[in-house]
Structure formats: structure tokens, C-alpha cells
């Protein structure tokens, strides 16, 4: 009977060790194993940086990258950080006064990242919020998609050349149908026009292609950033074979 407590204690120790290993793994694993014996899809870990001065604050959360690994993201984030901080990070009191900046109303920039995956791609949706005076700040989103080998995927790699003539009318109808009282023809027609700039932010999931429409693109500020998901089955004729 004296052996039972020892046995229970051993089980407890094993469980604790197992929990430590599990949580340690969950924090460090950056490879997702895909079904059907497909190659692994590498997901970059996110890194965090913060800087603050009397008149400016900057916090960034973005994929770990450099000039050779995810260079498109690295160049974008580096330029965005440098542009903001070179303008506002080292202001003198006199310069801040000329810009009407106060210590209790700092200029701010925040970069955050959302990740979307399909069976063959990973997309990093990098949002940049900036407040540089006025009633409120503004947010812009950029998307960066990579395949299983880490190669940058452009939208022309996914779609046939005529894709905009098919997608644009569908997007226009979608926003007319879903924006309710904010369904404004002028904004929607302009924001969904068949131009590459209107459809430059996008991501793939296993079943959909989703286009992201920025602030003010299809309506007023109050509606925020909008997304239009399209089931791949509805646009199979304009998808290239590798992404169907």
C-alpha cells in the first residue's frame, strides 16, 4: 500500500514534464505539416520591437525577416519604421510646438501582422496604423504571400490574365448587397473598379480567395476595412492550376 503514493507521484511528475514539453513546443514550432504528404509550410515567427520618445511612440509586430528571408516584408517594414521615426522620433521641443504635438498626445505608429494559410501558401497581412494629428489615425494593410519554398507569390501567379474583369463585378455586387445603409454607389464603384491597385491586398485559404479593401475604399471611415471572400469553386475558370 505504501507504493501507491509513490506511483501517483511519479505519474504527476510525468504529467508535469509532458506539459512543459508541450507548451515549450507550442511556443517555438514554426512549421505546419500539411495533409496528403504535401511539403511543409514554413510560418515565420513574429518579432516585437518598441521605441518611444517625448513626442512619438512606435510598436511593431512583424514576421522575422531579413534581406534574404522574406525580403519583401523586411524592406517594407524597415522603410515604414525608418520613415516614421526619422520624421518624429527625435523632435526638439520647438519642432514639436510647430507641429502642435504634445507629450500627452504623441504621434504613434503601430504595425501588426495577421497570418492566413492555404495548403500551398502563407500570407502575412501587415497592417500599419499611424496617428499624426487630427481626429483619428488611419490604417493601411499590405499582403505578402509565399509558397512552400519561400518564393514570393504575386497575384498574376494565381489568376489568369482576365481575372479583374470577372472579379470586379462580383465584388461590386457583394458590397452593394452587404453594406446596407453605407452602400454608396460612388464609393463602391470607384473602390471595386477593375484596377490592380484596388485588388492588391489579398490572401488564400484552402477554399477561398479573399480581397481586402482599405479604409475609405468602398465606403466611409466608419465601416473600416472590408473583406470580400470568394469561394474558389465559383472562379475555378480564372484560377491557375496550382491554386485551384
Task: Give a topology summary.
Layout lengths: L2 H26 L2 E2 L8 E2 L3 E7 L3 E8 L7 H18 L4 H6 L8 E11 L3 E11 L6 E10 L4 E2 L1 H4 L4 H16 L6 H7 L10 E3 L3 E6 L12 E6 L13
Parallel strand pairs: 4-5
Antiparallel strand pairs: 1-2, 3-4, 5-6, 6-7, 7-8, 9-10, 10-11
The dominant shape is flat
Distance between the termini: 64 Å
Q: Class of the largest domain in CATH?
A: Alpha Beta
The strand order across the widest sheet is 3-4-5-6-7-8
CATH topology (level 3) name of the largest domain: Heat Shock Protein 90
- CATH level 4 superfamily of the largest domain: Fervidobacterium nodosum Rt17-B1 like
Q: Counting H and I runs of at least 4 residues, what is the number of helices?
A: 6
Q: Proportion of β residues? A: 25-35%
Q: Which structural class matches the secondary elements?
A: alpha+beta
Low-pLDDT regions: 1-36
Q: What is the total domain count?
A: 2
Residue share in helices? 25-40%
- Give the radius of gyration: 23 Å
- Give the averaged pLDDT, no decimals: 87
Question: Could you walk me through the main structural features you see in this protein, from its secondary elements to its overall organization?
Answer:
A hairpin with a 6-residue loop joins strand 6 and strand 7 (138-147). Strands 3-4-5-6-7-8 form a six-stranded mixed β-sheet. It is flat. It is an alpha+beta fold. It has two domains: 41-153, 2-Layer Sandwich (Heat Shock Protein 90), CATH 3.30.565; 156-243, Alpha-Beta Complex (Actin, Chain A, domain 4). The longest helix has 26 residues, at 3-28. The protein has six helices and eleven strands. It is 32% helix and 28% strand.
Amino acid at each position: 500500500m505504501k507504493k501507491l503514493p509513490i506511483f501517483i507521484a511519479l505519474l504527476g511528475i510525468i504529467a508535469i514534464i509532458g506539459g512543459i514539453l508541450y507548451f515549450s513546443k507550442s511556443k517555438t514550432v514554426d512549421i505546419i505539416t500539411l495533409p496528403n504528404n504535401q511539403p511543409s509550410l514554413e510560418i515565420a515567427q513574429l518579432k516585437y520591437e518598441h521605441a518611444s520618445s517625448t513626442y512619438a511612440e512606435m510598436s511593431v509586430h512583424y514576421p522575422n525577416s531579413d534581406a534574404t528571408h522574406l525580403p519583401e516584408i523586411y524592406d517594407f517594414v524597415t522603410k515604414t519604421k525608418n520613415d516614421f521615426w526619422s520624421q518624429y522620433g527625435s523632435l526638439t521641443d520647438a519642432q514639436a510646438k510647430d507641429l502642435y504635438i504634445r507629450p500627452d498626445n504623441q504621434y504613434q505608429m503601430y504595425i501588426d501582422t495577421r497570418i492566413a494559410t492555404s495548403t500551398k501558401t502563407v500570407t502575412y497581412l501587415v497592417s500599419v496604423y499611424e496617428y499624426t494629428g487630427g481626429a483619428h489615425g488611419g490604417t493601411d494593410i499590405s499582403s505578402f504571400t509565399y509558397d512552400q519554398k519561400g518564393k514570393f507569390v504575386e497575384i498574376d501567379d494565381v489568376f489568369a490574365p482576365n481575372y479583374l474583369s470577372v472579379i470586379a463585378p462580383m465584388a461590386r455586387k457583394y458590397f452593394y448587397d452587404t453594406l446596407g445603409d453605407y452602400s454608396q454607389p460612388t464609393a463602391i464603384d470607384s473602390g471595386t473598379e477593375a484596377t490592380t491597385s484596388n485588388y492588391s491586398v489579398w490572401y488564400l485559404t484552402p477554399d477561398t480567395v479573399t480581397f481586402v479593401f482599405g479604409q475609405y475604399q468602398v465606403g466611409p471611415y466608419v465601416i473600416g476595412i472590408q473583406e470580400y471572400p470568394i469561394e474558389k469553386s465559383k472562379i475555378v475558370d480564372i484560377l491557375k492550376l496550382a491554386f485551384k
